[in-house]
Amino acid sequence: MRYLDHAATTPMRPAAREAMAPYLGTVFGNPSGIHAVSRRAKNAVEEARERAAALLGAAKPLEIVFTGGGTEADNLAVVGAGIARSGRGVVISAIEHAAVAESARFLGRLGRDVRVVGVDAVGRVAPDAVAEAAGELGDPIVSVMTANNEIGTIEPVAEIVAAVREAAPEAIVHSDAVQAAVSEDVSVRALGADLISVAAHKLGGPKGVGLLYVRDGVELEPVLHGGGQELGRRSGTHDVAGIVGMVAAMEEAMSDRDGFRRRVGAARDIFERTVVDRLGEVVVTVPAEVRLVQHCHLRFVGIDAETLLVKLDMAGIAAAAGSACQSGAIETSHVLRAIGMEATAAGECVRFTFGWPDDEAAGRSAADAVVAVVETLR
Amino acid sequence: MRALVAMSGGVDSSVAAALMLDAGYDVVGVTLKQWEDPDGTLPSAGCCTVADAEDARRVSAQLGIPYYVLDHVEDFRRNVVEPFGAAYLAGRTPNPCIECNRTVRFSALLQRSEELDCDLLVTGHHARVTRDERGYHLWKGVDAGKDQSYVLHMLGQDQLARIRLPIGEVTKATVRDIAGSLGLRTATKPDSQDLCFVGEGGYRAFLRREFPQTAAAGDIVDSDGTVVGRHGGTAAFTIGQRRGLGVAAGERRFVIEIRPARREVVIGTRDDLLVDGCIVTDVSFVAGAPPPTRTVEVKVRYRSRPTSARIAERGAGRWEVRFFDPHPAPAPGQAAVFYDGDEVLGGGIIDGIVRR
After folding, report:
1. Which residues in chain B are closer than 8 Å to A328, comparing Cβ atoms?
2. For strand B295-299 and strand B307-313, is the pairing parallel, antiparallel, or unpaired?
3. Dihedral angle at the C-alpha atoms of A90, A93, A95, A100, nearest 10 degrees?
């Protein structure tokens, strides 16, 4: 099996698994309790919080809110900030992940003003356009992703934050860094945002756990109501093992970011170059300069992506296109529509994404395998 | 040899996949995504639902075969659903399963299966294919009560060479026994009753939603033109229909004609309903040529009894069917399928009726 779908999820790092093991065994306590068993669990969560805060450059550990994954972090950010102030509108880009886009739509159903800012042909959002929309709404929650999960485009989040602060000082800015965190600097310093979402499993941690950085002083209305954990911002018993595993994965990913960029970038580069050179009639969707190092998004002209993906799978190669719907069929991508791609062309695009286990040799052999399959369809 | 099995999530196609595996094929399971509600989700009622795709996926996992959902929404909308609505607007009674088999299942999907390096396309239809020195033959399924050969009449030699219908060789009871013995989760699943895409409320609700003009009210008139009642849209009627006319009359009344332009439904007596033949278009023959005798048994509805008739060519793909005895009028839009005993000879779509 050749796994070229690390943007969907990536294997657990051994360090994360090892860090989690005690919390799946003897250290089973509920952190919310007064006895010794609880205290051990509570300690683990709070130590993880401190380390996560340090990794993201947060001013205080309590700026980190643990959630049940990236989608939940996005919901807490957009919906939580949206309904924390009455009448607050929302500004998002046209290529946000559904977790953000649907949260914005939800605010729309509550009667809030929703502005969707378009992107250019490579998927970049113009800071001025975001700032203008924010200025018109006054105090909106603004959400622009750090990098797109489908085409890999990196957004100028720091510039967007600066422009929004100027045009709408009351606005709250969120960035969904779920896809970017494994290879880009998504710290508070680098992004400048008030709210930042991270998901563990995209970094080599477990599924079903994530975090939201919440700048001190930013008010959030909780979206999950209950026992008041996480200072009332996210009720529900902590997934202690998940939280510990996430932070171990973050630590490894963030301390080896340069190594990742070099190794995985080399895998992606040789893969992309080989596929494009050997096949011809392959179009690179977004130039490498504006794209995540692990991302490759290609259009195979004249080849139906769904057929190609099935054939790749039959040949033991895992890749992706668009997003899978409930039934498992591939949905037409709103991201490709937003960058102005025609439906036919969009239906010929496949995403290949690399991850921490990959290196140049893996990229080269993956290219050989993909070329062989595509050639059977030509 | 590799076989692509079209799996609906029902017991027949589940067992078809199991039988092909048993016969030594590499098997790939697929479900066609044929329709979605306006918000992009699969229908929640009928077949083709998320739950059905899930059943097909789970059965595939149980059998240890790869499984995919393939998107044929555009094909299906263009070739099946739009003509379905247009036919009702024209006062016809279409059979969308036939158009689906003609344009999607045994056309687009057959092509798909070749692209995926599959040697055969397999479905769970109750019908049989055999081969002898004259070529391929299509037959009614072994289980007469479940026979689906009517909706497969358009298949020709080229297609029959590339498909397998293993379920036609056994009875429904055997299918369920096989599924049960393999522990397949679909073993006791009820047969689907409705069109796969119409969802909750059946085809009338679907037409009202997707083709609102079909719900325009009009008059019910007698054969002499007297208005005897009102109706809520001609799409609710089919030729020969007796129930649901909402008209009190001494003698039993039947729908004998639908006049879409005037939105009139014409009713008459059983005698008024009898006709001598019909005109059939889009005619094809399984063997590639009509039977030399030009004498066939013809079925003009999925569940009607065959009647003897002579057929005569009236143009390209256009044939006249002459019943030996006067026959209740068939509904334009339905298929006229020609049989010789249990063998399917061919058929086409009824375009009009013939009175002597």
Report:
1. 31, 53, 57, 68-69
2. antiparallel
3. -20
Is the CB of A330 inside 8 Å of chain B's CB atoms?
yes
| B100 inside domain | yes
CATH number at residue B81: 3.40.50.620
Tell me the average confidence (pLDDT) per consecutive run of 10 residues in chain B, 356 residues long: 95 97 97 76 59 92 95 91 94 94 94 95 97 97 96 97 97 97 93 80 87 91 91 91 76 90 92 95 96 96 94 96 96 97 98 90
Measured CA to CA, the distance from residue A66 to residue A70 in angstroms comes to 10
Contact A335, A324 (CB under 8 A): no
The DSSP bridge pattern shows strands A282-284 and A295-300 to be antiparallel
Is residue B198 assigned to a domain? no
Q: Which residues contact A286 (CB under 8 A, 6 or more apart)?
A: A122, A123, A151, A152, A153, A297
Q: Give every CB contact of residue B337 below 8 A, 6+ residues apart in sequence.
A: B149, B150, B153, B298, B299, B344, B346, B347
Kindly compute the dihedral angle of the four CA atoms of residues A201, A204, A206, A212, in this order, to the nearest 10 degrees: -50
Give the residue carrying structure tokens 């208005």: B227
Residues in chain B: 356
**Is A204 in contact with A252 (CB distance < 8 Å)?**
yes
What positions of B carry a catalytic annotation? 100, 196
DSSP B215-251: G--EEEEETTS-EEEEES-GGG--TT--TT-----SS
Whether A349 sits among the annotated catalytic residues: the reply is no
Its pTM stands at: 0.89
Task: Note whether A62 and A201 are same-domain residues.
Answer: yes
B44 CB within 8 Å of a chain A CB: no
Q: Is residue B186 part of a domain?
A: no
Six token digits for residue B72: 């044929």
Do residues A208 and A249 share a domain? yes
Which segments of chain A does DSSP mark as H helices, in order?
14-20, 36-56, 70-84, 98-109, 127-137, 157-167, 188-191, 240-255, 257-279, 305-314, 334-338, 343-346, 360-377
Instruction: Specify the number of domains making up chain A.
Output: 2
A86 in contact with chain B, both atoms CB, cutoff 8 A: no
Using the 3D structure, point to which of B268, B283, B311 is the last residue of a domain: B268
Cβ-based contacts of B3 with chain A (< 8 Å): none
Instruction: Please report, for the domain that includes residue A138, its CATH number.
Output: 3.40.640.10
Cβ atoms < 10 Å from Cβ of B111: 12
CATH label of the domain that carries residue B228:
2.30.30
**Considering B268, B290, B306, which residue would you say is the last residue of a domain?**
B268
Q: CB of A261 within 8 A of CB of A84?
A: no
Q: What ipTM was assigned to the predicted interfaces of this complex?
A: 0.84
- Asked whether the CA dihedral B344, B349, B355, B356 is positive or negative, the reply is negative
